């Protein structure tokens, strides 16, 4: 195994391991919160679903990619490729959609009350689950073509207009299908990114204009939690947009060539998965509920460890 392959394999392994660990910890923390609290705030429900979507993305894309880099072959047959690629496409789509949803919901939450918002704000908790269902149905419909183009790798030369993922091939057969798929996915992504940027910009504007009012609300009504949540949302949006930009620059390049180099495809996979790997650590560091559950679990585990050491002595 040469140096380049080793570096690539270690990079994917670290990214995958960190991402799966972080998102699993967030999901377990929220499972404990759901068990101990009557109901979650809309932002907490969205963050929990975001961690699930990111975990789904990592398991269906980064895990087989890492195994392929380290030389494992014939991981999936044709039906397996269709299921994995479809699940990956949905997970990736949900990641951008739910980040956008998080930004919009937080913007509505901290917006000054008006005639329309005064009716909308109390209804936010009841809108979360229907919005989740709508996003799942939307992305399942948009990604429905993925299984038809996915197949296990074939021996020989990779045909034109085929994405060689290593563990699977996505064969679009002709330039028209290749471009239509790319345009459809990019249009959806850019629409949701534009909406999340607009709502995040509105959040920043509110925080800037009403900093004194926010401090007053924090002292009298506990508004500090909303401010911290808003800053977390903006941080997640900035993180997503950075990696989204890199991902789409590479994707646009891939649309302009008939045969995509495996190195270029690997670069896109790595950068497009960075958000899924890093976002749970921002959630853990900024969300007091999640952090408290992790600290509590660590403290509960410490006495059992100490008792075990004492008994050994």
From TrEMBL:
Q: Which PROSITE patterns match?
A: G_PROTEIN_RECEP_F1_2
Name the Gene3D superfamilies on file. Answer: Rhodopsin 7-helix transmembrane proteins
Q: Where is the G-protein coupled receptors family 1 profile domain?
A: 22-283
Membrane topology, as annotated, equals: Multi-pass membrane protein
Q: Provide the GO MF annotations for this entry.
A: pheromone receptor activity
Q: What are the annotated GO cellular component locations?
A: plasma membrane
Q: Where are the transmembrane segments?
A: 12-35, 47-70, 90-111, 123-149, 229-255, 267-284
Superkingdom to which the source organism belongs: Eukaryota
Q: Which UniProt keywords apply?
A: Cell membrane, G-protein coupled receptor, Membrane, Pheromone response, Receptor, Transducer, Transmembrane, Transmembrane helix
Q: For this UniProt entry, what is the primary localization, expressed as one broad class?
A: membrane
Q: Does the keyword Repeat apply?
A: no
Provide the protein's localization. Answer: Cell membrane
KW Kinase (keyword) present: no
Which BP terms from GO are recorded? response to pheromone
Q: Family per UniProt?
A: Belongs to the G-protein coupled receptor 1 family.
Q: What is this protein called?
A: Vomeronasal type-1 receptor
